[in-house]
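Rotation project, supervised by the postdoc (A.L.). Task for the rotation student: set up a whole-complex structure prediction and record inputs and outputs verbatim in this book. Inputs entered:
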Amino acid sequence: MVGSNRNRKIRLSVRYAIAVVLLLVMVYPYLYMVLNSLADWSQVDRKLIPDAFTLKSYQWLFLGGETGVTRPWIGSFLNSIVVSLLSTALMMAFGVMVAYALSKLRFRGRDTVNNFILFHMFFPAIILLIPSFLIVQKLGWYDTYWALIIPKGVSLWAVFMYTNFFKAVPDAFIEAAKLDGARDFQILYKIMLPMSKSITSVIFLFLLMERWTELLWDMIMVRSDHMLTLNVLLSQMFGPYGTYPGPLYAGSVLLSLPIIILFILFGKKFQEGMQFTLK
Amino acid sequence: MNQNNPRLGWLFTSPYLIYSLVFFLGPLIWSFYLAFTNWDLIAPTYEFVGFDNFLKALKSPGVQSAFWVTYKFMIVFVPLVIVMSMAVAVLVHGLPKFRSVFLIGFFLPYLSSGVVSSLIVKGFLSYNSPLNETLRRLGVDINWLGSPWAALLVVGAIMAWKFTGYYALILTSGLAGIDKEVYEAAAIDGVSNRQRFWKITLPLMYPAIYTTLILAFGVTFGIFTEVYQLTGGGPNYATNTWQMEIFSQAFKNLQAGYASAIALLASLATFISIFIIRKLLEVWGKRNGWV
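Outputs recorded:
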């Protein structure tokens, strides 16, 4: 028995070792990015693990380099924050409202709305890209925040997830609250939302992440330098700034870090929520 | 169920209804309309050209490549991501402790921006990078983004890197649903490890695997950022996806009418492919008695 116990221990250690190595391989691109953003410019993309470090890339990013070219990095970073947060807030608020109506309110035409949403989900977004762009132009939103926020203000996926979750909430809760004189808005905010904290954190993170890293839409909808989101700015740096790989990595860190920090902060709730999502 | 409340029902659904009118139904109809015109996105006038756009599209190398590239990405991406996420899921599932720490770690790539991952890969594969220096010393000189299959492989690998942790999460929840007693019973009956995987794990995991496969196949129809950033659809259309083709035609060549026709063709190809893939997966599951 002692022998088999030791065998088990060895096997487990090997398993952990493999898991750690695999994890390191998977997060290595992130490490590569961080190390290169701090590496001396002569070593960027030249060493697996650089050994001379400098803050020059970050200086270049925020203060401009010797060429005197400054790009609106801080501005585009703020653009990304404003656009992503507002879009996500709209997607969450509308998702909750629509889902509550579809799962807990009875009204004629509800099934029609439900079926229409399924029909809508069925279409690949690419078919809508060109006319959506034209509609944004017609509305006078081209090159404004409106174009980046409002058309990205409804998420069918969020509606779908919340509807499924709310359906699982027993009606007795709602009826009891109604007897206590609560109105539907109150039920939504005092009962449904607190119950759905973990799934809310999953939906929030997914939506925010998706909005934060969107390229195609943000690239088409605005033209002015001061309107660009960070992701688009970074993408445009590729060509003309390709000779400054260090700052490219610094910019990548600036783009990646907030979402990773947020994810780690939400990690526990996220895991709980995923359990429901994956059922 | 709550009492009848039509006013509130419509009020709460109104944000979606207005949105879908302006940003779904409107564009959908407009897109069909545009596909039959020769509008160039700027000129005040345009003509109806019947099916010309569709005929032109079917003959163009860009559209033909987009059609095939989708399936080439499937061949590269789907097996890669399934094997990787399965490996991660099985590995992490067998860990008694720190399981969630590992799962969160493996999930991190999913948070990456396609721009950033492309940037990193471009640097990592640049001519003087440590990888290429080493390869050249071994006598291998690969122009990663300059040769068709290598470029496909690189983009497929970036996608697989991104989605592995996400799919592993789905697969682990499938693994967690398997009763331990089934394995114990199998162990008593002297079932080998290999049989155990094929006869017990796989059938019981079929629903999770099905979900993962559908998601993975779906991904291949929407690849844009990585391709735009790394190859621009090249070399010689080798990585020219539907999205890339539509973007180039509409916003670079300003052929709004023509690009709309391509978007319709792309949607049609997507519908039919997804339908067939679903059916095949279901038949596969039924054949083996897993469903």
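Student's summary: The longest helix of chain B spans residues 61-93.
Supervisor addendum: Chain B is about 75% helix and 0% strand.
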